[in-house]
Write a structure and sequence with these properties.
single chain; about 120 residues; four-stranded antiparallel β-sheet
């Protein structure tokens, strides 16, 4: 898989037996600023059980809370989440990041779970 970033929080990778961690994806410029911009790419091998979570900062940013702490918290929630039902997993992650609070920014969450070839 090839990934690029336009300044969003790092995607979080979960691998069976290897743990859960944010991926280092060098950020490019915000989309729309420079039509000729180059975006650095990061390649990640897909293995059965691989899970990748991508989100906008609106999901995890909270005034007065360090962004690195928020990323670490989301990483911990993903590490503990049951992956048998992605809808329920997404609901769990959204709830864990403060679904009850007023959001001040857009929220987007994408979860990819690669089961392997059939």
């Amino acid at each position: 898989m090839t990934l690029a970033s336009a300044g969003h929080p790092p995607p979080i990778m979960r691998l069976p037996g290897s743990g859960t961690r944010p991926l280092e994806v060098p950020p490019g410029p915000v989309l729309g600023i420079d039509a000729d911009a180059d975006f650095p790419v990061t390649e990640v091998p897909l293995r059965p059980g691989f899970m990748l979570t991508c989100c906008t900062d609106g999901l995890i940013e909270t005034p007065g809370v360090d962004l690195d702490d928020s990323i670490a918290a989301l990483t911990g929630h993903l590490a503990q989440a049951d992956d048998s039902d992605l809808d329920a997993l997404i609901d769990t992650l959204v709830a864990a990041t403060g679904a009850h609070r007023q959001r001040t920014d857009d929220v987007a969450l994408l979860v990819l779970h690669f089961l392997g070839q059939r």
